[in-house]
Amino acid sequence: MNAPSTVWQGAGRRIHMQEVGLRDGLQMEKTFVPTEDKIALCNALSVAGLSKIEVTSFTSPTAIPALKDAEVVMREITRSPGTVYTALVPNLRGAERAIESRTDELNLVMSVSATHNLANLRMTQEQSFAALAQVVALAQGANVAVNVSLSCVFGCPMDGDVAQADVFGWVQRFVDRGVRGITLCDTTGMAYPTQVHQLTAAARARWPGVEFTLHFHNTRGMGLANVLAAIDAGADRFDASLGGLGGCPYAPGASGNVCSEEIVHALALMGYDTGVDLAQLVAAAQQLPGFIGHDIPSQIAKAGPRLALHPVPADFEAIRERALAR
């Protein structure tokens, strides 16, 4: 018989939570969140103890107007020791802007699905790789860390499953360029736990020196299950989004990323150490509807943690007396 999984007993094991809501979440919103509110949200997340915060995206303001204030936000946030402040950059100009704004890490994105890469980035995979290789060289010359996020690792909404050999081929090409941070992204919420476990375990075994992050969406309700499957396979870094914000324009019906406060809440109950203050995180999430003008998916922001107790009914003593009089 196989040995029973130990995923259910965290036993203080460290899990690094990496917040992507300020970028992956807000970029999907129609309402522009004022710059000062973005800065305040980032500062609140820093105080909450997130290991990494993706603050913004240095893309064209025309392409993503919701993040047109990238330089101001990145320069004016209050940085906490031990927290990495990262940003998505699409090209050399974006990388230059990010480095000038004192970004700790550049997050680069391309897809392991040729169809998705062309539809989403308007480039072939080889064109994307050539452009990102230039950014990697620039960052290395400036002594700035690089992470590469590979989209559609667990499936493409247009092509279906992506072969593991194709995924690992792209990982190897970036590793050969000196990249030591790779995010395996379930961009469109197609991942399922057994698939996640197998691929995560294989990737970690093949590249033990690479810092792998897992990035899941909750499109089909398997977000937490996928996180646990990845932990069982040895993963210890996860992207998540405050309030469960996010989505993908090429995944009809897609919901947001896995929710930061829901994952932190679940892992804490199981004995894992995320280093995150759940109360601070929930308080930050509860501000979101006021900023974006609509409800958020987060169940923890609505219901509170498991032991958020409520007062007994006002007539409880009368109920007791009637019960005892029977």
From TrEMBL:
The keyword Metal-binding applies. Residues 15-282 form the Pyruvate carboxyltransferase domain. Keywords: Lyase, Metal-binding, Transferase. It comes from the Bacteria. The keyword Lyase applies. GO terms for molecular function: lyase activity. Pfam families: HMGL-like. InterPro entries: AIPM/Hcit_synth_CS (IPR002034), Aldolase_TIM (IPR013785), HMGL (IPR043594), PYR_CT (IPR000891). Belongs to the alpha-IPM synthase/homocitrate synthase family. This is Hydroxymethylglutaryl-CoA lyase.
